Amino acid sequence: MENKSMIGHIAALITIVIWGTTFISTKILLVDFQPVEILFIRFIMGFLALFLVCPRRLRGTDLKQEFTLAGAGLCGICLYYLLENIALTYTLAQNVGVIISVAPFFTAILSRVFIRHEEKLRVNFFIGFVVAMAGICLISFNGAEMALNPVGDLLAVLAAFVWAVYSILTKKIAEFGYSTILTTRRIFFYGLLFMLPPLFFFDFRFVPERFSHPVYLMNMIYLGLGASALCFVTWNFAVKMLGAVKTSVYIYMVPVITVITSALILGERITWLSGGGTLLTLVGLFISEKKFREKRNPS
Asked: Contact 153/140 with Cβ under 8 angstroms?
């Protein structure tokens, strides 16, 4: 049991380290690609990669299970990434990275509502939430510029909530007992179906010539094979091993990874406010998670 738990933690850690840098790749691609184009192409690549790895079909699902898989595709593939990518067009990559770290709070609340065995949330949870939100506000002011980006930041908050819904759905899917690769591929399938209407609405254009640019090609491959095909399997596996709330804790690491890489690659400044806001966010998240651990391991 301990070995399975350790594997789950390793899977979650690998996932979050890669995901913490996807904001950078997306920001680079947004120079010549629309958000919906990045989204659709990367998950097409991810779907095909998972099919090559495991070509057999997912069989034996009932209608209720298919609805759950479809809901996961809608939330975790279509809505979350569409909201996140659009947010990146309005605000800084480090803003989005920090704000997305609120997702564990939403996950915990939804777990309490929809997963009956979760214990009642204590006051420390809400204290931690307030501290983290204070940190997010500092990050949103963007250091010395003191420029709030309400549209982009709000879209990032909505993305965090949608991801929390996805986490709950993947917990339900894990209980079905099917292969993680097969369920992840089915989730990708539904997510791609839900993406078809936005393709027309956002004027999707497939221009192969853009991939002649090595930087664009490598970043798209990174998003498609690494951040999509690999990371969704490892994340869903971690949820299966650890549970939705415990796995979501690893999202707390995203701000640190994103702020550092956005500074190194995109040249976005790490000011005292953005650095302090990141630290404050992590402290708030730690306060909340600490009480969860105490509840799960009563003396």
From this structure: yes
Nearest in space to 46 (alpha carbons), one of 14, 85, 77, 90: 77
pLDDT at 144: 43
Q: What is the pLDDT of residue 193?
A: 95
Helical segments of 202-271, H only: 214-221, 231-242, 244-248, 254-261
Averaged confidence pLDDT in the chain: 82
Helix (H, G, I), strand (E, B) or coil at 56: coil
Residues 105, 88 contacting (CB under 8 angstroms) = no
Rounded CA separation 103/158 (Å): 9
pTM for this entry? 0.82
Closest CA to 136 of 292, 289, 276: 276
CB 83 within 8 A of CB 194: no
Q: What is the pLDDT of residue 93?
A: 66
- Positions of the chain with pLDDT lower than 50, given as ranges: 143-147, 291-299
Give residues with Cβ within 8 angstroms of 284, minimum separation 6: 127, 128, 129, 130, 131, 132, 133, 134, 135
CA dihedral 75→205→152→140, nearest 10 degrees, is 110
- CA pair distance 210, 255, nearest whole angstrom: 30
| Cα dihedral 216/217/221/222 (nearest 10) | -40
